[in-house]
Amino acid sequence: MTQLYPTIAECIGNTPLVRLQRLPGETSNTILVKLEGNNPAGSVKDRPALSMITRAELRGDIQPGDTLIEATSGNTGIALAMAAAIKGYKMILIMPDNSTAERKSAMSAYGAQLILVTKEEGMEGARDLALSMQAAGKGKVLDQFANGDNPEAHYLSTGPEIWQQTQGNITHFISSMGTTGTIMGVSRYLKEQNPAVQIVGLQPMEGSAIPGIRRWPEEYLPKVFEPSRVDRIVDMAQREAEDVMRRLAREEGIFCGVSSGGAVAAALRLSREVENAVIVAIICDRGDRYLSTGIYDEPK
Fold it and tell me: Which of 261, 257, 258 has its CA nearest to residue 244?
């Protein structure tokens, strides 16, 4: 009888793909967004978080009761904290101290221990500390930046879902790039189905600070990243990403974070260049984890 009901882990994925109604304006293109905030812990990172832990278990790399360590800017940390709670692991998360209060609180709610590095040390410093703690025997680093189980989760789930939901009609895929796991896995799957599908990656313009995405220094470029899998990279200004984020909430009823606003801003730009296209952008999380920043408080 109990097997009729899913576990929380089985509720990850199969997120809605919805059509934008007002932002695109008069166009022959269809702009679709995948609502990854509908995952249990609220972001696209639920997929690789569970994948990295489950696959490490299957390989015998970890077992329940072990301590896991990860550097994160937010969404992966929340997702890993949830996955660790589901699976029975202790979780240590290392993050810059300028991460939002909502993110810190969500990680703590799932039982994770937080270690903060300075804003100046940033994600690079968090990654270095995670590896030094592992070397000191304090736990095992999953390393989302170099772990093939990260993009594999999207190759096995996000990519196939998008292909099926668009009935194979997708022409362009747009994703913000942080660890690059999402864009790597989805690109691999979609290109196998149709090599003509264009893959567009989003990075912040120099001087812009968009939570969750980065312009990585060469020495910190994620090892999972394969440049050949991205056809085009768009530099996004922080202001444009924030403006479209607010418009998504006010004009489309889609409440999301800044990187998602950037992805849709890139989709709107692209839509002005092409015709009869089916453009899919990832809405990677929900907007409620950014409210304390005041980013939604600007006048309407």
Answer: 261
